Amino acid sequence: MSRQFIIYSSDARLPDDPVQRVTEIGHILSRARRHNNANEVHGYLALVGNNFIQMLEGDSVVLAGIMLRIGIDHRHTNLVLREKGDLATPLFDDWDMGCCLEPDVVRHALNKAGIVEIQDVTAMTPDQLRVFLVTLSWLAKTSGEECAA
Fold first, then answer.
1. CA 63 centroid distance within chain
2. Beta carbons within 10 angstroms of residue 142's beta carbon
3. Phi, psi (5° rounding) for residue 90?
4. How far is Cα 20 from Cα 58, in angstroms, rounded to an integer?
5. What does the angle CA 9 – CA 129 – CA 72 come to, to the nearest 5 degrees?
6. Alpha-carbon distance 103 to 86, whole Å?
7. Whose CA, among 28, 51, 66, 107, lies 20 to 30 Å from 74?
């Protein structure tokens, strides 16, 4: 089994209503957590404005299947594989699917990661995306609660 990582970004197509939006993301997380747990995939998802960014770690074949499913999911448009490679050191072993949706926590993580003026995640480098997601997961762990739907 070849362990790899992928980082992608996409435009989120979610309801405008905040309650419906959180409900829809809850459905995404529930399904992803079941699938990831069964397939030894770990990762972290963030919603930044209207963009999803996510890093996943797991078997290369399983990750390819996940990317295919995301590519046809109506909740994602403009899917871009930002980086992929061999996984030297797992970063998200504690998360079947960690997630952060809270704008204030996202801004705090961006600042802690040294990313102050990014308005669009598509302008972030893969290294910035990785540092940002690791920082979010660290903030969730140290606060004792996951900031997720």
1. 13
2. 8
3. -60, 140
4. 30
5. 15
6. 31
7. 107
* Two tokens, residue 89: 């050191």
Give dist(CA 121, CA 97) in Å, integer: 20
pLDDT of 74 over the 80 cut: yes
What is residue 85's predicted lDDT score, i.e. its pLDDT? 94
Distance CA(53)–CA(6), nearest Å, equals 11
DSSP string across 41-74? -EEEEEEETTEEEEEEEEEHHHHHHHHHHHHH-T
pLDDT at position 102 over 80: no
Please name the helix (run of DSSP H) or strand (run of DSSP E) that holds residue 133, with its range, or none.
Answer: helix 126-143
What are phi and psi for residue 75, nearest 5 degrees?
A: -85, -5
Question: Looking up tokens 């762990």, which residue turns up?
Answer: 141
What three-state secondary structure class fits 81?
strand
| Structure tokens that stand for 35 in this block | 């699938």
Six token digits for residue 81: 């594989």
The lowest-confidence range among 16-25, 34-43, 97-106, 130-139 is 97-106
The encoded tokens of residue 31 equal 């399904």
**What pLDDT shows up at residue 120?**
65
Alpha-carbon gap, residue 113 to 59, rounded angstroms:
28
As a whole number of Å, the CA-based R_g of the chain is 14
